[in-house]
Write a structure and sequence with these properties.
This protein is of the alpha+beta class and 288 residues long. It folds into two domains: 3-121, Arc Repressor Mutant, subunit A (Orthogonal Bundle); 137-286, Regulatory factor, effector binding domain (Multidrug-efflux Transporter 1 Regulator Bmrr, Chain A). Helices cover 41% and strands 18% of the residues. It is built from ten helices and eight strands. It has helices at 3-22, 30-37, 44-52, 56-74, 80-86, 92-103, 107-112, 116-121, 158-172, 240-254, and strands at 137-141, 144-152, 182-186, 199-205, 218-222, 225-233, 263-267, 280-286. An eight-stranded antiparallel beta sheet has the order 1-6-8-7-3-4-2-5, covered by helices on one side. The longest helix has 20 residues, at 3-22. The N and C termini lie far apart (44 Å). 24% of the residues are buried.
């Protein structure tokens, strides 16, 4: 298969994967998905499994359970029955069976205590990197005071730190999610950093210094200055597809030099109240 045909084939799968993400709450029969991809329904199962390394039914189930997992962990007020229905299951019994079979514990047990590292093992898809043409803007970012919790350890356990930061926000009210900007500071690249040494900052805008707290949240700031900004649409799990073109393609030919501050993210909306396919994240690369 030549390069042109490979790109066309990949584009057809990108289309069907995007369709699945946007319609998780609906029935997704193979006949409909094969039409979206313009593949024969007789061969779609095999093509999908060969391309992603998992069956189409398994992929859809795991995406629905991923959405449910975020709701269980980060939205304690929503009842499990409502999470089951919101995630596209017909009833809480079928949801509980699928959840327990996939993760080895019930939804209520997962709500009490998450093991994100083991959870991530279920999501090792063979997803090919999409070739995204990023639109780069040069902007001036204003110096921003933040409350930050530094995560240190495997990237797969960042959600443990996210949970502690959410707890701090809720307990103190000092950086309300509804009205304060939320940021992520990418001190390290998880693809090239030893897991035990990986660092990532989870942060929210604050108006005053942060008092001592049991969660370990401290006062920091994002320095103002020129930045290259790229907007990433969709799941945070694929944000690298918008970062790498910035470094590989845009930066070498831009004539720009990098400032001594890490890449950082401004999350314009957040899980779990936003569906993954509707997430919007601005990526900032600090420049001199």
């Amino acid at each position: 298969m030549n390069d042109t045909r490979l790109r066309t084939y990949a584009a057809r799968f990108d289309k069907v994967l995007a369709y699945i993400e946007a319609h998780l709450q609906e029935p997704l029969p193979v006949e409909r998905l094969s039409r979206v991809a313009n593949f024969s329904r007789f061969h779609f199962h095999r093509q999908f499994a060969d391309y992603l390394g998992t069956s189409v039914a398994r992929y859809i189930l795991l995406l629905r359970l991923r959405r449910a997992s975020y709701l269980l962990a980060f939205d304690r007020k929503t009842k499990i029955i409502d999470i089951a229905l919101e995630a596209g299951f017909e009833n809480p019994e079928s949801f509980s069976r699928a959840f327990r079979h996939t993760f080895g514990l019930s939804p209520s047990a997962f709500r009490r205590r998450q093991d994100w590292e083991s959870w991530h093992e279920r999501y090792r898809f063979r997803l090919p990197e999409r070739n995204i043409a990023v639109q780069v803007e040069i902007v001036t970012f204003a110096t921003t005071q933040i409350a930050m919790l530094e995560h240190r350890g495997p990237a797969e356990t960042v959600n443990d730190s996210v949970g502690r930061f959410i707890e701090w926000r809720q307990q103190t009210g000092l950086s309300p999610k509804a009205s304060s900007h939320t940021f992520g500071i990418a001190y390290d690249n998880p693809d090239t950093t030893e897991p035990a040494l990986f660092r990532f900052g989870i942060a929210g805008e604050v108006a005053a210094a942060v008092p001592p707290n049991p969660q370990g949240v401290v006062t920091q700031r994002i320095p103002g200055g020129r930045c290259a900004r790229v907007r990433h649409l969709g799941s945070h799990t694929r944000i690298g597809e918008s970062i790498y073109p910035l470094y590989r393609n845009w930066l070498p030919g831009s004539g720009e030099e990098l400032r001594d501050f890490p890449l950082f993210f401004h999350y314009l909306n957040l899980l779990p109240e936003t569906q993954e396919n509707e997430l919007v994240t601005d990526i900032y690369l600090p420049l001199k």
